[in-house]
Amino acid sequence: MTIGFFDSGIGGLSVLAEALRRLPAQDYLYMADTLHVPYGTKEKDDVKAYVMESVSMMMERGIDALVVACNTATSIAVNELREVYSLPIVGMEPAVKPAVEMNHATGKRVLVFATPLTLQLPKYYALVSRVDEGGIVDSLPLPELVRYCENLQFDKEVMAQYFHEKLSAYNLDDYGIIVLGCTHYPFYRNVLRELLPPHIQIVDGNAGTVRRLSALLTRSGIAHNGTGRVSFMSSGNEPAYLDKMQTALAFVRELND
Ligand code: DGL
């Protein structure tokens, strides 16, 4: 069976890395919408059309289940995808709910990093209103981080400098958890771990997403008869980007070890 993973670029590889670890007996098809990355700074209706077009390309190649490994794309298009396609679909949203629950005891605040588009959509607003009774959630858009990641900019010093600037207005003593609400951001987990005070936990939705995928595969009777093979495709079909995806997958798998 082949599980499709979709993202605007290489971000979803951070989720695929988790799937390869937890569900090694599947085969995977990873697609990046290279013609339109990044999504997070574009118009909602345009992004919806890009997602629908990309997923239809994946369907032509043949997939048995789909993970929308992108918070932005999920916010905009997961409902429509579920209307159009009958295969099992797993979406992602920033892990605000678990973060608020985990933080309950400490009385500290939660800071959510995501793309500007994710943070401005009604879906995010509804999520925060539902789970944040105490008004402890703050949100910070980090559009540049997607660009850095797409350029494979993982230099510790450059990135630490960027985070210092972005966080300079925040008193980090007030915060207990940072949520990585974009799948490109876990590439910087180690850089963040080194620069954040040790009391701050860093949370992403990757493990939860793979748990949901696993449950859905079981429920749908999809067999675990693959070998962990990963094929790549991109909307622009650029050979150099196929190499980039391989490099980025190796990088993020190592981070998780
Ligand atoms: N990786 C995507 C997400 O999880 C979006 C990045 C982008 O294209 O702006 O939101």
UniProtKB/TrEMBL annotation:
A biological-process GO annotation: peptidoglycan biosynthetic process
Active site, per annotation: C70 (proton donor/acceptor), C182 (proton donor/acceptor)
Single annotated GO MF: glutamate racemase activity
Membrane is among the record's keywords: no
Entry-linked Gene3D superfamilies: 3.40.50.1860
UniProt cross-references to InterPro entries, sorted A to Z: Asp/Glu/hydantoin_racemase, Asp/Glu_race, Asp/Glu_racemase_AS_1, Glu_race
Keywords from the UniProt entry: Cell shape, Cell wall biogenesis/degradation, Isomerase, Peptidoglycan synthesis
Enzyme Commission number(s): 5.1.1.3
Pathway(s) the chain acts in: Cell wall biogenesis; peptidoglycan biosynthesis
Binding site for substrate: D7, S8, Y39, G40, N71, T72, T183, H184
Catalytic activity: L-glutamate = D-glutamate
Broad EC category: isomerase
Database matches in PROSITE patterns: ASP_GLU_RACEMASE_1
Family to which the UniProt record says this protein belongs: Belongs to the aspartate/glutamate racemases family.
Task of the protein: Provides the (R)-glutamate required for cell wall biosynthesis.
NCBIfam families: glut_race
Listed name of the protein: Glutamate racemase
UniProt source species: Paenibacillus radicis (ex Gao et al. 2016)
Originating gene: yrpC
